[in-house]
Structure formats: C-alpha cells, structure tokens
Design brief:
Belongs to the RRP4 family. By secondary structure, this protein is α+β, with helices and mostly antiparallel strands. It is built from 4 helices and 16 strands. Helix content is 13%, strand content 33%.
C-alpha cells in the first residue's frame, strides 16, 4: 500500500514591517523572526545561524532595534503599583508568605499592614504574637506591590485590613489577560463584587453591606440636636453667668 509522505515545509519568516507588527504576529518555538543582523535579540529569542529565532510561543514585539517575544502563558512578573490577589501560605516572624502566581512567594511584612481601626503606631512584640489573629494560612487578600527584591520576589503593601473568607469564587487566569487599569475593584449591579488582580487571580464575592459608622469619612448633618435648641442655649448662658458672678464675689 502506497503511503503519502510529505517533506517538512520551510517556515515562513515573520516580517518586521510596520503592517506586520500592527497584526501582532504570533510565533512558536523555532520560528525564524528575521535574518537581519541589525536587530538585537531580547527575551524569548535566540540566534541560530545568524537568524533571530523564537524560543517561546507568543507575540513578537519590537522596540526600536530590540525584538522580543512576549509569552502567551507565563508566571506573573510583578511591578511596583500592581494590584494582586493572593492567598496566605505561611506565617513567619514579622512577615507572611503569600502565593501570588509568581516564581517565588511574595512577602507581606507586618510593618506594611495597617492595623484594624486604622491605628498608626510602631509594631510591638505583642503585634508579632497576634499575627495569626490578623491573617492566617488560607486567608485571601488583595494587596499592592510595594517593591521588588533582587531575586524577583515581591514585597506587598496591605492598605485595607479586609479578609474575604468563605463565600466567593477564585478564578485563575493567565496574567497576560489582565491589563493594568485605573481601578481593579468593581461592584456589579447584580450584588456581586469583583477584584481583577494583575497576577491573573480574579476574586468574585458578595458585595458587603457597609454600615454608616464603618464607612469612614464625614458628612454634613443639618439636623438640630437637643443641645442646640434655643431654650437649652439660654439655660447654659444663665448658668455660665451665675458661675462667673460667684467667682467674682
């Protein structure tokens, strides 16, 4: 029986013209990006026989003479200011370890956490002993990247002392699908809230009912209190005058 055999076809090089980059060319490992030696190789590329070749599957990006390939699926590489959703994995001395879908566990220092009630003071040994009462293993938090260590680990800042437990759904996506936005916290009209983490973690939970005394801020009240009524004010003035006369006498 005759077998139909085909030789491997020559891969088509990726054009580096402006129109090609408008299409956002996608490549797979081994695809030849260009044979022009005037370009510099970036992340996701290597040189093979004087040809710039893709080493990962992703989107070809060009900045001046630098060419790199942005992987379609990769671990989260955080930057300062990114909003992340993470889960506490370990409680250590003066710090928590947080899983944020990055290569290394992120670090949340005790000094980077606002204490309940917004109290501003130095952290004491008592606070260190009660760390597990604030956050413990399995708690889900939303934090902000404060800095990046030399090894790539992220240092987090926890501005709001809120812990979402129990009800809710955590969805893990590719970090490349979450774009940096002005706000990552959204309240949906259906009674649910969503947090879009730059690290690919999306948290859906019921919108909490905020009490007036817990909402914070201030408001103007035009309601007349009992102490501001005219008869009460007159009585206060009379008592004050009487006290002054007694002191003079």
């Amino acid at each position: 029986m005759a077998a139909d055999m085909r030789l491997p076809t020559i891969r088509k090089p990726v054009s580096l013209s402006g129109s090609a980059f408008d299409r956002r060319d996608l490549v797979v490992p081994g695809d030849i990006i260009t044979s022009d030696t005037g370009f510099m190789r970036g992340h996701g590329t290597y040189v093979d026989e004087e040809k710039l070749t893709a080493s990962v599957a992703g989107e070809v990006q060009r900045v001046d003479k630098l060419i790199c390939v942005r992987p379609l699926k990769t671990r989260f590489n955080g930057e300062v200011g990114d909003v992340v959703v993470g889960r506490i994995t370990e409680v250590q001395q003066k710090r928590w370890k947080v899983e944020t879908n990055s290569r290394l566990d992120s670090v949340l220092l005790l000094s980077s956490v606002n204490l309940p009630g917004g109290e501003l003071r130095r952290r004491s040994a008592e606070d260190e002993l009660t760390m597990r009462e604030y956050l413990q293993e399995g708690d889900l938090i939303s934090a902000e990247v404060q800095s990046v260590f030399s090894d790539g680990a992220l240092s987090l800042h926890y501005p709001q002392f809120e812990v979402w437990k129990g009800q809710g759904v955590l969805v893990q996506l590719s970090p490349s699908l979450i774009k940096r936005q002005k706000t990552h916290f959204h309240n949906l009209p259906c009674g649910a809230s969503i947090i879009l983490g730059n690290n690919g973690f999306v948290w859906l939970y019921p919108t909490p009912e905020q009490q007036e005394e817990e909402a914070g801020g201030f408001y103007t009240s035009l309601e007349v209190k009992d102490i501001l009524k005219p008869e009460v004010m007159e009585e206060i003035v009379m008592l004050t005058q009487q006290k002054l006369l007694e002191q003079e006498g």
